[in-house]
Write a structure and sequence with these properties.
Blueprint: E1 3-4, E2 10-11, E3 16-23, E4 26-32, H1 35-42, H2 57-64, H3 69-74, H4 81-86, H5 90-100, E5 103-112, E6 115-121, E7 141-146, E8 154-158, E9 166-171, E10 176-180, E11 188-198, E12 203-211, E13 217-224, E14 229-238, E15 244-245, E16 251-253, E17 256-262, E18 267-272, E19 277-282, H6 293-301, E20 306-312, E21 315-321, E22 325-333, E23 338-346, H7 348-353, E24 359-365, E25 368-373, E26 376-381, E27 386-392, E28 398-406
Antiparallel strand pairs: 1-2, 3-4, 5-6, 5-28, 7-8, 8-9, 9-10, 11-12, 12-13, 13-14, 15-17, 16-17, 17-18, 18-19, 20-21, 21-22, 22-23, 24-25, 25-26, 26-27
Biased composition (Basic and acidic residues): 36-45
Protein name: F-box associated beta-propeller type 3 domain-containing protein
Region (Disordered): 36-55
């Protein structure tokens, strides 16, 4: 029986069965019992499933560590809260990468002498140096968007500053690429995003937000790999005056891409890829937490507090951070747009280790953040209060970062 929790996450409170899980090349069909069911039985709950063979939670963990990345993200994570939480856990992600040869990390892109330079970083095996864009038909290429799904697709633009740039979709892990038709490039690209709708056969969509000549409205086009063509998604979006989309990567949750805005009005711009509409979402204003409305208002507008949109176990999250603390807010009801403060943690240990300040780039997992300190990238476990990995930056002029999940399976990009 399928239910939905208060956060809107699909879960199953009874014994769960998954069909056709692929583990190391073998198909498994096992009746699995969730953490919730184990607790129910411990409390003397229903015994209607006592005669059914079950798999203990530690064995579930071992099985999921070997499930193909596409099955894990498209099927398994929706079974229950426990399985969903595992996919955002740093230890589980490391074990899963080791067992399945899947990739999880970030493309770091910078510009030097009017040319883009790209490198891949990861806390998990295999070696990040094996992932690059050197197989592309041109070296001067800019990453515009990367997908969150297991196919690990990246949308790139060659010669982005020329009159007629080239648009490409590629899979860096398998070194595949395909040129796609150009959109209406008379407008300047503001943002792009890519989503895989189906894995077999591969079906993906790309959206492109572009500025009008006056800069007062947005145009949106969508590329559909099934039709192999661009079309107008929505046109002439009038945003409130002085609203500008953040430079940070988009967050894909609840079927919509989300970008933080900055300017006079600080909101979240949401673009629904299926309903083909857009909306503006307010930042946290009030809550049942201990934070007062005045404190929340100050966090929303204080220029010394950094705000980052994140994916919090499948829900829209907003991460506030200063040099000494970090606070995570989660949209617990997406339909009603209600926020709840999840936690506040101290970053003093990090501040003492890296004197002089740092910038928070991403919430890597639910226990790890990625921060930048001058010429270093640091994975910091804020639960344990220790850095897990430190990497040197080759190009100090860090421009953008793009998250990437990917399996090692070739796919047909057309």
């Amino acid at each position: 029986m399928k239910t939905t929790d208060t956060m809107g996450t699909p879960t199953r409170t009874l014994a769960c069965e998954i069909d056709n899980i692929m583990v190391n090349g073998f198909t498994m069909d096992l009746p699995l019992v969730t953490k919730e069911k184990e607790k129910e039985e411990e409390k003397g709950g229903s015994k209607s499933f006592s005669s059914s063979p079950t798999v203990p939670s530690d064995m579930q963990y071992e099985i999921l560590c070997r499930v193909a990345l596409d099955d894990l993200l498209r099927q398994c994570k929706w079974v229950c809260k426990y399985w969903n939480a595992l996919t955002y856990n740093s230890t589980f992600k490391r074990f899963h990468s080791e067992n399945t040869q899947s990739i999880s990390g970030y493309f770091i892109q910078s510009m030097k002498k009017n040319r883009y330079h790209t490198s891949f970083i990861s806390i998990n095996p295999p070696s990040p140096s094996s992932i690059s864009l050197d197989f592309m038909p041109t070296t001067d290429i800019k990453i515009e968007a990367s997908s969150y799904q297991a196919q690990g697709l990246v949308c790139c633009v060659s010669k982005p500053h020329s009159t007629i740039p080239g648009y490409y979709v590629c899979k860096p892990v398998t070194r595949q690429w395909r040129q796609i038709p150009n959109p209406k490039t008379r407008y300047i690209t503001e943002k792009m995003a890519i989503v895989v709708k189906k894995s077999q056969p591969l079906h993906y969509k790309i959206i492109r937000l572009s500025n009008s000549k006056t800069g007062c409205s947005l145009h949106c086009e969508i590329f559909d790999s099934k039709k192999w063509a661009w079309r107008m998604y929505f046109d002439n979006v009038k945003l409130p005056y002085y609203i500008i989309l953040s430079l940070e990567p988009e967050v894909l949750v609840h079927g919509s891409f989300h970008w933080l805005t900055f300017g006079k009005h600080k909101q979240i711009f949401a673009c629904d890829i299926d309903k083909e509409n857009w909306s503006l979402i307010s930042l946290p204003q009030s809550s049942t937490s201990s934070s007062s409305e005045e404190e929340i208002e100050a966090m929303n507008y204080d220029f010394q507090i950094h705000r980052t949109l994140v994916n919090c176990e499948g829900h829209l999250g907003l991460l506030y951070s200063s040099r000494s603390w970090m606070e995570l807010w989660v949209m617990e009801d997406y339909m009603k747009k209600t926020w709840r403060k999840k936690y506040r943690v101290s970053l003093e240990p990090l501040n003492q280790m890296y004197v002089g300040g740092y910038s928070l780039l991403a919430l890597d997992t639910m226990d790890m953040i990625l921060v930048k300190k001058f010429d270093q990238l640091i994975w910091y476990n804020f639960v344990r209060g220790i850095p897990t990995k430190v990497m040197k930056l080759q190009n100090l002029d860090h421009d953008t970062h793009h998250p990437l999940n990917s399996d090692n399976v070739s796919c047909d990009l057309k």
